[in-house]
Amino acid sequence: xxxxxxxxxxxxxxxxxxxxxxxxxxxxxxxxxxxxxxxxxxxxxxxxxxxxxxxxxxxxxxxxxxxxxxxxxxxxxxxxxxxxxxxxxxxxxxxxxxxxxxxxxxxxxxxxxxxxxxxxxxxxxxxxxxxxxxxxxxxxxxxxxxxxxxxxxxxxxxxxxxxxxxxxxxxxxxxxxxxxxxxxxxxxxxxxxxxxxxxxxxxxxxxxxxxxxxxxxxxxxxxxxxxxxxxxxxxxxxxxxxxxxxxxxxxxxxxxxxxxxxxxx
Length: 265
What we know:
By secondary structure, this protein is of the alpha+beta class.
């Protein structure tokens, strides 16, 4: 493949960071990342992208809720009856949602307050202390703002062109399984619009190709981090610097399809 190509194939690598602490409210994720890299004889470089699990962002922001403290209203009681969920959990989902789209015993598909569509409004008890006793974890209030704050802290470590992606695992319409998805983003182009700007192998101009850059980075990062007891909630992606930017950028919300274009309602 010619070296003169406008968009050469990047040499991308990803690795989960070992040695990170257990995160609690107020703890610095950025400092923990820099400490873990230093212990490995490494440091942030320009073009690096840190993929950070939503759970640790929510934990340091104190986004835990004790379901026993919720008082379900009539709507929550009805949702619980339709889906077989506990009434308190139904109330928590309603509180975090802009719209309940598909109530089902397997999952309550909701449009989160941020606009993302996912199961149970992102509320989860796995890898949460007290999860067996009714403590659940909510998403950050504004994941894009969280990503911007984290990026500002990381930039202070001396890497001006670093990207941050906050990732959570989501299901997809018509597919089995979950994939890491960007729910918050800073310093990274969320989308790469190739329409009218690139050609295929036969010289035809691309008409419909818009690459989900942030979601792709989130997916590879989540794959490296794992979903269970690995204890590695941060992944470092290198070689994708062409998609990073000096400014924070529009955030992961810019990759959401507008409600009026929703083809699955």
